[in-house]
Design goal:
Elements: H1 2-30, H2 39-51, H3 65-100, H4 105-119, H5 122-136, H6 159-166, H7 169-206, H8 209-216, H9 221-237, H10 241-258, H11 264-273, H12 277-305, H13 317-343, H14 347-355, H15 357-371, H16 384-398, H17 405-415
Helix pairs in contact: 1-12, 3-4, 3-7, 3-10, 4-7, 5-7, 5-10, 6-7, 7-9, 7-10, 10-11, 10-12, 11-12, 15-16
Length: 416
Protein backbone atom coordinates (compact mmCIF):
# COMPACT_ATOMS: atom_id res chain seq x y z
CA UNK A 1 0.00 0.00 0.00
CA UNK A 2 2.85 2.36 0.80
CA UNK A 3 4.50 1.71 -2.58
CA UNK A 4 1.18 2.40 -4.30
CA UNK A 5 0.81 5.67 -2.39
CA UNK A 6 4.36 6.78 -3.30
CA UNK A 7 3.76 5.86 -6.95
CA UNK A 8 0.55 7.92 -7.03
CA UNK A 9 2.31 10.91 -5.48
CA UNK A 10 5.16 10.68 -8.02
CA UNK A 11 2.62 10.68 -10.84
CA UNK A 12 0.81 13.63 -9.27
CA UNK A 13 4.05 15.58 -8.84
CA UNK A 14 5.04 14.83 -12.45
CA UNK A 15 1.67 16.12 -13.62
CA UNK A 16 2.01 19.34 -11.62
CA UNK A 17 5.56 19.91 -12.87
CA UNK A 18 4.29 19.41 -16.42
CA UNK A 19 1.54 21.99 -15.84
CA UNK A 20 4.08 24.43 -14.35
CA UNK A 21 6.35 24.08 -17.38
CA UNK A 22 3.38 24.56 -19.73
CA UNK A 23 2.29 27.75 -17.94
CA UNK A 24 5.88 29.04 -17.86
CA UNK A 25 6.35 28.23 -21.54
CA UNK A 26 3.09 29.96 -22.40
CA UNK A 27 4.39 33.15 -20.75
CA UNK A 28 7.69 32.72 -22.59
CA UNK A 29 5.88 32.07 -25.90
CA UNK A 30 3.94 35.33 -25.71
CA UNK A 31 7.22 37.26 -25.59
CA UNK A 32 9.05 35.32 -28.29
CA UNK A 33 8.73 34.87 -32.06
CA UNK A 34 8.12 31.12 -31.96
CA UNK A 35 5.81 29.68 -34.61
CA UNK A 36 3.33 26.84 -34.33
CA UNK A 37 5.53 24.63 -36.53
CA UNK A 38 8.32 24.65 -33.96
CA UNK A 39 6.04 24.66 -30.90
CA UNK A 40 6.94 21.15 -29.68
CA UNK A 41 10.66 21.64 -30.30
CA UNK A 42 10.64 25.00 -28.49
CA UNK A 43 8.72 23.52 -25.55
CA UNK A 44 11.15 20.64 -25.16
CA UNK A 45 14.11 23.02 -25.40
CA UNK A 46 12.54 25.36 -22.83
CA UNK A 47 11.79 22.45 -20.44
CA UNK A 48 15.29 21.04 -20.83
CA UNK A 49 16.77 24.46 -19.96
CA UNK A 50 14.58 24.69 -16.88
CA UNK A 51 15.61 21.22 -15.73
CA UNK A 52 19.26 22.30 -15.99
CA UNK A 53 18.50 25.60 -14.15
CA UNK A 54 19.09 27.68 -17.26
CA UNK A 55 16.42 30.33 -16.75
CA UNK A 56 17.78 32.83 -19.26
CA UNK A 57 19.26 36.29 -18.74
CA UNK A 58 17.82 39.10 -16.67
CA UNK A 59 17.09 42.31 -18.56
CA UNK A 60 17.57 44.39 -15.41
CA UNK A 61 20.99 43.12 -14.33
CA UNK A 62 22.29 41.56 -17.52
CA UNK A 63 23.32 38.46 -15.54
CA UNK A 64 21.92 34.92 -15.75
CA UNK A 65 18.74 34.66 -13.68
CA UNK A 66 20.22 31.78 -11.68
CA UNK A 67 22.99 34.09 -10.43
CA UNK A 68 20.46 36.62 -9.13
CA UNK A 69 18.55 33.80 -7.44
CA UNK A 70 21.72 32.42 -5.81
CA UNK A 71 22.45 35.90 -4.45
CA UNK A 72 18.97 36.74 -3.12
CA UNK A 73 17.23 33.45 -2.37
CA UNK A 74 19.28 32.65 0.78
CA UNK A 75 18.08 35.84 2.51
CA UNK A 76 14.45 34.95 1.75
CA UNK A 77 14.93 31.35 2.90
CA UNK A 78 16.46 32.59 6.16
CA UNK A 79 13.47 34.84 6.82
CA UNK A 80 11.00 32.06 5.99
CA UNK A 81 12.72 29.40 8.12
CA UNK A 82 13.27 31.64 11.16
CA UNK A 83 9.71 32.97 10.98
CA UNK A 84 8.35 29.43 10.71
CA UNK A 85 10.40 28.29 13.73
CA UNK A 86 9.28 31.26 15.84
CA UNK A 87 5.61 30.90 14.91
CA UNK A 88 5.75 27.13 15.47
CA UNK A 89 7.39 27.36 18.91
CA UNK A 90 5.24 30.24 20.19
CA UNK A 91 1.99 29.13 18.55
CA UNK A 92 2.33 25.49 19.59
CA UNK A 93 3.21 26.39 23.18
CA UNK A 94 0.33 28.81 23.57
CA UNK A 95 -2.06 26.42 21.80
CA UNK A 96 -1.16 23.49 24.05
CA UNK A 97 -1.58 25.45 27.28
CA UNK A 98 -4.77 27.01 25.94
CA UNK A 99 -6.11 23.53 25.21
CA UNK A 100 -5.10 22.25 28.63
CA UNK A 101 -6.84 25.20 30.29
CA UNK A 102 -9.75 25.51 27.84
CA UNK A 103 -12.71 27.61 28.94
CA UNK A 104 -10.47 29.43 31.42
CA UNK A 105 -9.42 33.08 31.48
CA UNK A 106 -6.03 32.18 29.98
CA UNK A 107 -7.75 30.33 27.12
CA UNK A 108 -9.98 33.34 26.46
CA UNK A 109 -6.99 35.68 26.30
CA UNK A 110 -5.09 33.38 23.91
CA UNK A 111 -8.09 32.88 21.63
CA UNK A 112 -8.71 36.63 21.55
CA UNK A 113 -5.06 37.23 20.65
CA UNK A 114 -5.19 34.59 17.89
CA UNK A 115 -8.35 36.05 16.35
CA UNK A 116 -7.00 39.60 16.62
CA UNK A 117 -3.58 38.78 15.13
CA UNK A 118 -5.09 36.80 12.24
CA UNK A 119 -7.24 39.82 11.35
CA UNK A 120 -4.40 42.37 11.24
CA UNK A 121 -2.94 43.11 7.77
CA UNK A 122 0.76 42.24 7.83
CA UNK A 123 1.85 45.41 6.02
CA UNK A 124 -0.16 47.63 8.41
CA UNK A 125 1.35 45.96 11.47
CA UNK A 126 4.84 46.27 9.94
CA UNK A 127 4.43 50.01 9.36
CA UNK A 128 3.09 50.55 12.90
CA UNK A 129 5.95 48.82 14.72
CA UNK A 130 8.45 50.37 12.28
CA UNK A 131 7.21 53.86 13.16
CA UNK A 132 7.11 53.14 16.91
CA UNK A 133 10.34 51.15 17.40
CA UNK A 134 12.53 52.47 14.58
CA UNK A 135 11.44 56.07 13.96
CA UNK A 136 10.21 57.23 17.38
CA UNK A 137 12.12 55.09 19.90
CA UNK A 138 15.06 54.26 17.59
CA UNK A 139 15.81 50.99 19.40
CA UNK A 140 16.00 48.79 16.29
CA UNK A 141 17.29 49.30 12.71
CA UNK A 142 14.63 49.87 10.08
CA UNK A 143 16.12 48.37 6.89
CA UNK A 144 18.35 45.59 5.62
CA UNK A 145 19.57 42.42 7.28
CA UNK A 146 22.91 43.81 8.52
CA UNK A 147 24.78 47.10 8.77
CA UNK A 148 26.49 47.87 5.46
CA UNK A 149 29.68 48.82 7.31
CA UNK A 150 30.22 45.19 8.34
CA UNK A 151 31.90 42.85 5.89
CA UNK A 152 30.94 39.19 6.42
CA UNK A 153 32.91 36.70 4.29
CA UNK A 154 30.59 34.58 2.14
CA UNK A 155 30.94 30.89 2.90
CA UNK A 156 27.48 29.35 2.52
CA UNK A 157 25.51 32.32 1.20
CA UNK A 158 23.31 32.38 4.31
CA UNK A 159 24.10 35.41 6.45
CA UNK A 160 23.20 33.77 9.78
CA UNK A 161 25.56 30.84 9.20
CA UNK A 162 28.34 33.00 7.72
CA UNK A 163 28.15 35.46 10.65
CA UNK A 164 28.40 32.61 13.16
CA UNK A 165 31.35 31.12 11.27
CA UNK A 166 33.03 34.55 11.20
CA UNK A 167 32.63 34.67 14.98
CA UNK A 168 32.47 38.45 15.49
CA UNK A 169 29.98 38.99 18.33
CA UNK A 170 29.37 42.62 17.28
CA UNK A 171 28.28 41.51 13.82
CA UNK A 172 26.06 38.78 15.25
CA UNK A 173 24.32 41.23 17.62
CA UNK A 174 23.75 43.72 14.78
CA UNK A 175 22.38 40.93 12.58
CA UNK A 176 19.96 39.82 15.32
CA UNK A 177 18.68 43.39 15.72
CA UNK A 178 17.98 43.57 11.98
CA UNK A 179 16.16 40.22 12.05
CA UNK A 180 13.81 40.95 14.99
CA UNK A 181 11.14 43.13 13.35
CA UNK A 182 10.82 41.30 9.99
CA UNK A 183 10.55 37.92 11.73
CA UNK A 184 7.90 39.20 14.17
CA UNK A 185 5.84 40.68 11.32
CA UNK A 186 6.02 37.54 9.19
CA UNK A 187 5.23 35.26 12.17
CA UNK A 188 2.09 37.17 13.20
CA UNK A 189 -0.53 35.24 11.19
CA UNK A 190 1.21 31.79 11.14
CA UNK A 191 1.47 31.97 14.94
CA UNK A 192 -2.30 32.39 15.23
CA UNK A 193 -2.78 29.45 12.84
CA UNK A 194 -0.58 27.21 14.99
CA UNK A 195 -2.49 28.31 18.10
CA UNK A 196 -5.79 27.30 16.54
CA UNK A 197 -4.49 23.96 15.25
CA UNK A 198 -2.75 22.89 18.46
CA UNK A 199 -5.54 24.11 20.75
CA UNK A 200 -8.21 22.04 18.98
CA UNK A 201 -5.89 19.03 18.69
CA UNK A 202 -4.95 19.23 22.38
CA UNK A 203 -8.59 19.28 23.45
CA UNK A 204 -9.26 16.23 21.24
CA UNK A 205 -6.23 14.40 22.63
CA UNK A 206 -7.32 15.09 26.21
CA UNK A 207 -10.56 13.18 25.54
CA UNK A 208 -8.81 10.02 24.32
CA UNK A 209 -8.95 6.96 26.53
CA UNK A 210 -5.25 6.59 27.27
CA UNK A 211 -4.99 10.28 28.23
CA UNK A 212 -7.99 9.96 30.53
CA UNK A 213 -6.29 6.97 32.15
CA UNK A 214 -3.08 8.98 32.63
CA UNK A 215 -5.02 11.91 34.07
CA UNK A 216 -6.80 9.61 36.50
CA UNK A 217 -3.42 8.36 37.72
CA UNK A 218 -2.31 11.95 38.45
CA UNK A 219 0.31 12.46 35.71
CA UNK A 220 2.35 15.67 35.77
CA UNK A 221 1.29 18.33 33.21
CA UNK A 222 4.85 18.72 31.87
CA UNK A 223 5.25 14.98 31.35
CA UNK A 224 1.79 14.83 29.79
CA UNK A 225 2.78 17.51 27.27
CA UNK A 226 6.19 16.12 26.27
CA UNK A 227 5.35 12.42 26.33
CA UNK A 228 1.75 12.29 25.11
CA UNK A 229 0.51 15.57 23.62
CA UNK A 230 3.46 16.78 21.52
CA UNK A 231 4.03 13.45 19.68
CA UNK A 232 0.32 13.25 18.86
CA UNK A 233 0.24 16.83 17.57
CA UNK A 234 2.69 16.07 14.76
CA UNK A 235 0.23 14.19 12.47
CA UNK A 236 -2.23 17.05 12.94
CA UNK A 237 0.29 19.77 12.08
CA UNK A 238 2.06 18.04 9.17
CA UNK A 239 -0.78 18.35 6.61
CA UNK A 240 -1.03 22.09 7.33
CA UNK A 241 2.67 22.92 6.91
CA UNK A 242 2.45 23.61 3.18
CA UNK A 243 -0.48 26.01 3.64
CA UNK A 244 1.30 27.83 6.45
CA UNK A 245 4.50 28.09 4.38
CA UNK A 246 2.48 29.57 1.50
CA UNK A 247 1.10 32.21 3.87
CA UNK A 248 4.59 32.89 5.20
CA UNK A 249 6.03 33.31 1.70
CA UNK A 250 3.27 35.73 0.68
CA UNK A 251 3.94 37.75 3.84
CA UNK A 252 7.71 37.65 3.23
CA UNK A 253 7.31 39.32 -0.17
CA UNK A 254 5.57 42.30 1.44
CA UNK A 255 7.86 42.49 4.48
CA UNK A 256 11.00 42.38 2.35
CA UNK A 257 9.81 45.44 0.45
CA UNK A 258 8.87 47.37 3.62
CA UNK A 259 12.16 46.63 5.41
CA UNK A 260 14.25 46.68 2.21
CA UNK A 261 15.33 43.13 2.84
CA UNK A 262 17.75 41.85 0.16
CA UNK A 263 15.57 38.95 -0.96
CA UNK A 264 13.23 37.75 -3.68
CA UNK A 265 10.45 40.26 -2.86
CA UNK A 266 12.23 43.40 -4.15
CA UNK A 267 13.55 41.37 -7.10
CA UNK A 268 10.04 40.36 -8.13
CA UNK A 269 8.64 43.88 -7.81
CA UNK A 270 11.51 45.39 -9.82
CA UNK A 271 11.12 42.66 -12.45
CA UNK A 272 7.42 43.44 -12.81
CA UNK A 273 8.16 47.15 -13.20
CA UNK A 274 10.87 46.50 -15.84
CA UNK A 275 8.89 43.65 -17.49
CA UNK A 276 11.75 41.24 -16.82
CA UNK A 277 9.65 38.14 -17.49
CA UNK A 278 12.57 35.71 -17.30
CA UNK A 279 12.97 36.51 -13.62
CA UNK A 280 9.23 36.40 -12.94
CA UNK A 281 8.73 33.02 -14.65
CA UNK A 282 11.81 31.37 -13.11
CA UNK A 283 11.10 32.65 -9.59
CA UNK A 284 7.45 31.58 -9.70
CA UNK A 285 8.42 28.17 -11.06
CA UNK A 286 11.08 27.63 -8.39
CA UNK A 287 8.85 28.65 -5.47
CA UNK A 288 5.94 26.51 -6.75
CA UNK A 289 8.23 23.52 -7.17
CA UNK A 290 9.62 23.94 -3.64
CA UNK A 291 6.13 24.14 -2.09
CA UNK A 292 4.99 21.12 -4.11
CA UNK A 293 8.01 19.11 -2.93
CA UNK A 294 7.38 20.08 0.70
CA UNK A 295 3.73 19.04 0.38
CA UNK A 296 4.69 15.61 -1.01
CA UNK A 297 7.34 15.09 1.68
CA UNK A 298 4.97 15.99 4.53
CA UNK A 299 2.36 13.56 3.19
CA UNK A 300 5.01 10.84 2.92
CA UNK A 301 6.21 11.45 6.49
CA UNK A 302 2.64 11.40 7.74
CA UNK A 303 1.86 8.11 6.00
CA UNK A 304 5.14 6.36 6.91
CA UNK A 305 5.39 7.36 10.57
CA UNK A 306 1.71 7.95 11.41
CA UNK A 307 -0.31 5.49 9.29
CA UNK A 308 -3.10 5.26 11.86
CA UNK A 309 -3.72 9.02 11.52
CA UNK A 310 -3.79 8.91 7.72
CA UNK A 311 -6.89 8.33 5.58
CA UNK A 312 -5.01 7.09 2.52
CA UNK A 313 -5.46 3.37 3.26
CA UNK A 314 -9.08 3.35 4.40
CA UNK A 315 -10.15 1.37 1.36
CA UNK A 316 -8.45 -1.73 2.74
CA UNK A 317 -10.99 -4.06 4.42
CA UNK A 318 -8.67 -5.20 7.19
CA UNK A 319 -7.76 -1.61 8.04
CA UNK A 320 -11.46 -0.72 8.10
CA UNK A 321 -12.30 -3.52 10.54
CA UNK A 322 -9.35 -2.53 12.73
CA UNK A 323 -10.54 1.08 12.71
CA UNK A 324 -14.09 -0.04 13.64
CA UNK A 325 -12.73 -2.11 16.52
CA UNK A 326 -10.57 0.78 17.73
CA UNK A 327 -13.46 3.24 17.63
CA UNK A 328 -15.75 0.81 19.48
CA UNK A 329 -13.11 0.24 22.13
CA UNK A 330 -12.61 3.98 22.59
CA UNK A 331 -16.36 4.46 22.88
CA UNK A 332 -16.54 1.66 25.45
CA UNK A 333 -13.85 3.37 27.51
CA UNK A 334 -15.91 6.58 27.57
CA UNK A 335 -18.89 4.53 28.80
CA UNK A 336 -16.74 3.14 31.62
CA UNK A 337 -15.65 6.66 32.54
CA UNK A 338 -19.25 7.90 32.56
CA UNK A 339 -20.33 4.95 34.71
CA UNK A 340 -17.51 5.58 37.19
CA UNK A 341 -18.47 9.26 37.44
CA UNK A 342 -22.14 8.38 38.02
CA UNK A 343 -21.42 5.68 40.59
CA UNK A 344 -18.65 7.76 42.30
CA UNK A 345 -16.65 4.76 43.59
CA UNK A 346 -13.45 5.11 45.57
CA UNK A 347 -10.38 6.27 43.64
CA UNK A 348 -8.50 2.98 44.06
CA UNK A 349 -11.24 0.90 42.46
CA UNK A 350 -11.62 3.50 39.67
CA UNK A 351 -7.91 3.21 38.85
CA UNK A 352 -8.23 -0.58 38.74
CA UNK A 353 -11.12 -0.35 36.27
CA UNK A 354 -9.27 2.16 34.09
CA UNK A 355 -6.06 0.13 34.12
CA UNK A 356 -7.96 -3.03 33.14
CA UNK A 357 -10.11 -1.58 30.37
CA UNK A 358 -8.83 -4.26 27.96
CA UNK A 359 -10.21 -7.03 30.19
CA UNK A 360 -13.49 -5.16 30.58
CA UNK A 361 -13.71 -4.77 26.82
CA UNK A 362 -13.14 -8.49 26.28
CA UNK A 363 -16.05 -9.27 28.59
CA UNK A 364 -18.13 -6.70 26.73
CA UNK A 365 -17.28 -8.30 23.36
CA UNK A 366 -18.20 -11.74 24.72
CA UNK A 367 -21.50 -10.29 25.92
CA UNK A 368 -22.17 -8.81 22.46
CA UNK A 369 -21.21 -12.03 20.69
CA UNK A 370 -23.62 -13.96 22.89
CA UNK A 371 -26.39 -11.63 21.75
CA UNK A 372 -25.20 -11.81 18.10
CA UNK A 373 -24.43 -8.08 17.82
CA UNK A 374 -22.19 -6.91 14.94
CA UNK A 375 -19.04 -4.84 15.83
CA UNK A 376 -20.35 -1.66 14.23
CA UNK A 377 -23.65 -1.94 16.19
CA UNK A 378 -22.16 -2.51 19.64
CA UNK A 379 -22.30 1.14 20.64
CA UNK A 380 -26.12 1.06 20.48
CA UNK A 381 -26.84 -1.69 22.99
CA UNK A 382 -25.00 -0.82 26.21
CA UNK A 383 -26.95 0.69 29.08
CA UNK A 384 -26.34 1.14 32.80
CA UNK A 385 -27.83 -2.29 33.71
CA UNK A 386 -25.53 -4.15 31.31
CA UNK A 387 -22.56 -2.11 32.49
CA UNK A 388 -23.28 -3.21 36.07
CA UNK A 389 -23.50 -6.84 34.94
CA UNK A 390 -20.19 -6.60 33.08
CA UNK A 391 -18.45 -4.98 36.04
CA UNK A 392 -19.87 -7.56 38.43
CA UNK A 393 -18.59 -10.34 36.17
CA UNK A 394 -15.26 -8.55 35.95
CA UNK A 395 -15.03 -8.32 39.75
CA UNK A 396 -15.88 -11.99 40.07
CA UNK A 397 -13.41 -13.20 37.42
CA UNK A 398 -10.48 -11.04 38.44
CA UNK A 399 -11.37 -10.64 42.13
CA UNK A 400 -10.61 -6.92 42.07
CA UNK A 401 -13.24 -6.18 44.69
CA UNK A 402 -10.69 -7.18 47.31
CA UNK A 403 -8.98 -3.84 46.58
CA UNK A 404 -12.15 -1.94 47.46
CA UNK A 405 -11.77 -0.44 50.98
CA UNK A 406 -15.55 -0.54 51.49
CA UNK A 407 -15.59 -4.24 50.58
CA UNK A 408 -12.69 -4.92 52.98
CA UNK A 409 -14.35 -2.93 55.76
CA UNK A 410 -17.63 -4.86 55.25
CA UNK A 411 -15.83 -8.21 55.41
CA UNK A 412 -13.94 -7.18 58.57
CA UNK A 413 -17.23 -6.27 60.26
CA UNK A 414 -18.76 -9.58 59.17
CA UNK A 415 -15.76 -11.55 60.47
CA UNK A 416 -15.83 -9.60 63.74
Amino acid sequence: MLISFIFKRIILMTLFVFLLTVISFWMHLRLSDSSLESFLYDYLTFTNNFIHFDFGTSIRSGLPVIEDMKLLFPATIELIVLSFILSFVVGTTLGIFSGLKHHSLFDTIIRTYAQFSSSIPTYWFAFIILIILCVNLKVLPMMGNINLLYDVPTVTGFLTIDAIIHGDITIIIDMVKHFILPIICVSLIPCSEFIGITRIATIQILHKNYILAKLSSGINDIRLIYVHILPNLIPTILPRITTILCNIFSAVIVIEIIFEWPGIGPLLIQSIKTQDYAVIVSTTFTVSLCLLTINILTELINVIFYPSQSNHFNDDKEYYLKDVKSSCKSWFFYQVMDWLQDQTPNELLAEVYLAKTDELYKLYVQHCNTLGVEPEDRDEMLDGREMNEILEQFNYVYSYTRFDPEYIHTNEQAEG
